[in-house]
Amino acid sequence: VVVEAPEGSGALITADFAAEQGREVFAVPGSIYNRASRGTIRLIKAGANPMLSPEDVLEALNMELVVRQDEVVESLPENKTERRILEALCAEPIHVDELQIRCGVPAAEISATLALLELKGRARQVGGMCYVRVREKKASYSVE
Description:
- It is a single chain.
- Strands 3-5-4 form a 3-stranded antiparallel sheet.
- The protein is mainly alpha-helical and 144 residues long.
- The protein has 7 helices and 5 strands, in the order αβαβαααβααββ.
- The longest helix is centred in the C-terminal third of the chain and has 13 residues, at 107-119.
- It has helices spanning 10-20, 38-45, 54-60, 64-68, 80-88, 96-103, 107-119; strands spanning 26-27, 49-50, 94-95, 123-125, 130-133.
């Protein structure tokens, strides 16, 4: 998330690198008369997600369902493919192609299993066909 960035700033360089790597980039729009907003306006014109509230980030990263869940119930993997995928997933995003290589499972089966794991609240897509494992939560909470 880039809040302010004059032209040529390090924040813009970092945002450009993030976009090149397929990461989600967010920019807070500012006044067109403010020099510190020129960079964020340029990022939005180039395709960055405009951020008007924290919910924009949650929505773009498909995290609303996770945050609003009353409780995540730990469920054991139902089959060998689920177990392999869950073992390969962690907190760092991993691309679906890399999961296919690591798990030795056909692409169609990886995609179908990831969709089921998302529905169960065990995995989450974070953009660019990358997935992370969802940590089990004991307490329930919601964002209002």
